[in-house]
Every structure is written in C-alpha cells, then in structure tokens.
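Quiz preparation item.
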C-alpha cells in the first residue's frame, strides 16, 4: 500500500474547506462513498498487502475514517442553528411521524423460551426446514410404513419421497447428536409442516420448540423438573399432569396437560430418548441417557394471549400485531 497516498489523503481531510451542507455532502461522498470513496478504496486494497502488515494499515485507515467522521460531526454541531439558512428548512418544526413496529407474538414467545433455557445451560441451534427421510423419520425409529407417518401426512418434494418439509424439529436432534459428543443440552425452534386443514385451531405450518438433554444418568425426574420449569415460567404456578403416551422416538413417553380455566388442556409431549435412536447416532445407550420434549409455539401464544383463532397470526393485520410489545 502506498504510504504517500495515505499521507496525501490525511492532509486533504485536514485542509478540506466546508462552508455549506452541500460542501459537507461532497466531502462525505469523496471520502466515505460506498463505491468511489477514497477510504473505502483503501480498505478494499488491504487484501493485496502482506498479512503481517494488514493490522497496521487497518488501524491507519480506521484512523482516517474517524477523522472524517469527526469533521462531519463538528461541522453539524457548529452549524445547527444555521441549518435553516443553508438548506432552507426550519429545524424547530416536528419531523415526519414514523410508526414504530412491534414484535410478532410468536417471536415474543420464541425468544422468551430461548432466554429461559439459555439461563439453565442450554445451547440454541437452528435446523433445516427441508429434510431427508433418514433424519426426519428413520433415525427417529419411524421406519417406512410406520403408522405415525400417516398421521403426519407429509409434504414430499421428490417423487421418491426421500426429500420433504420437516414434520417436527426432532430432526435437529439427529443432526446435532451425530456431530457432537455428550453431554449436551440443546434447544431448537423453527417451522414444521404437516398436511392439515387450516382452521381456527390448526394450520399446515406451525412453530415447534424442541429441547433435548443427553448425559450420564439423566432420568425421567430430570425431565419432569425441566417441564415444570418451562410451564411455570410461562403460565405461573398452574397444575401440571403427566399422562402416559406413545412416541416412536421416546420410551417411556408422556403427554403434558395443564389446568387452564378449570379444564385440563394438552400442551406438549415428552419422553426419554429411545436407545434405538441413540444407537442410530452412535451414542452408547449403556453409558448415556437423555430426554426430549416438544411444544407448539402457536398453542402457547393462544393461551398466553387468550386468543381464539390461530389464523390471525399470519393475516398481517396491523391492528392485531401492534398490540404486542416485547419483554426483551
């Protein structure tokens, strides 16, 4: 990089005369313009210098950029009261109103759950929405012709039905466990797809939160404590009921109900990860055990915000959406 060129730019910044806001804009474009700005050109050229000098020149160029920004800031501060004379506006007139957006109710619940589980040592990971049969079904102890496949009535993307839109976030378990050595605690939240009729209580797409914990001597008692933590954090000290159930990838399995408005309502499913699933991802089930749970975000939001129709989440009605404020 040409040291003389840097020195010339430094002097030009120092002695550049700015009298009006038009001068100021020309100054800004000349030195900070995205395409032809002199400082940005210097930054692009850093890739051509030896690696041992990159840090030195980077510091010098950032120093030049700071001088430009300081000169702009000083001019604006010194000429604030004269703005009306220079650009023919009255700075005392209120600006144009810009409506502030709000976070979607599903996003509020999602980030609240992420925050809750990161506080107890969980890591958050994203997963693929387009999956293959092995990760979505077979590795989770759901072989071809298993009845639960019919219940999920999947959206397939290929004629041979090997590629599909994931039907649950449990596929994240498989991908994560294949590439990591226990112990680990993981949470994943994302869209899942099932061929369901759209109604006030169901949709072909919904958001699911999936958590799993693998370690030595993980027990059903650990699972119960985690479920209590999740539900009590969202709903307060409500009554919780575990009912025996069946999922192909957990054993034993349970459905979780909470006492809500004097009725028991199903809210989520959970269970101890089946040893077959652990074997499919090369985890020794004689050493490690684990649990998993899954819950629909839409259902949680219906209960927390006392809503009646799931379709309202996706209608983009500003009157509905602007009612929500984030807690984060």
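Solution:
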């Amino acid at each position: 990089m040409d040291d003389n060129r840097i020195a010339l730019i430094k002097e030009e910044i120092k002695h550049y005369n700015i009298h009006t806001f038009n001068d100021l804009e020309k100054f800004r474009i000349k030195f900070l313009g995205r395409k032809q700005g002199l400082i940005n050109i210097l930054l692009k050229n850093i890739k051509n210098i030896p690696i041992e000098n990159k840090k030195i020149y980077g510091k010098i160029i950032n120093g030049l950029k700071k001088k430009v920004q300081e000169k702009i800031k000083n001019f604006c501060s010194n000429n604030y009261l004269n703005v009306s004379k220079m650009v023919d506006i009255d700075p005392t007139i209120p600006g144009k109103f810009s409506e502030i957006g709000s976070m979607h109710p599903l996003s509020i619940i999602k980030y609240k759950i992420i925050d809750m589980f990161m506080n107890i040592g969980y890591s958050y990971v994203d997963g693929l929405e387009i999956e293959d049969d092995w990760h979505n079904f077979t590795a989770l102890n759901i072989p071809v012709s298993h009845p639960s496949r019919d219940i999920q009535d999947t959206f397939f993307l290929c004629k041979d039905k090997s590629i599909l839109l994931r039907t649950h976030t449990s596929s994240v378990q498989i991908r994560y466990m294949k590439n990591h050595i226990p112990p680990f605690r993981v949470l994943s939240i994302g869209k899942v797809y099932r061929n369901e009729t759209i109604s006030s209580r169901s949709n072909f797409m919904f958001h699911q939160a999936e958590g799993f914990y693998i370690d030595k001597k993980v027990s059903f008692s650990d699972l119960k404590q985690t479920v209590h933590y999740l539900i009590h954090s969202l709903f307060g000290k409500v009554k919780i009921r575990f009912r025996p159930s069946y999922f192909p990838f957990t054993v034993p399995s349970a459905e979780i109900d909470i006492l809500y408005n004097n009725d028991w309502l199903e809210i989520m499913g959970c269970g101890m990860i089946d040893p077959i699933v652990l074997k499919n991802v090369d985890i020794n089930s004689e050493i490690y055990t684990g649990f998993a749970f899954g819950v629909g975000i839409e259902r949680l939001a219906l209960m927390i915000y006392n809503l009646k129709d799931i379709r309202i989440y996706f209608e983009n009605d500003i009157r509905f959406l602007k009612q929500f404020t984030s807690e984060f």
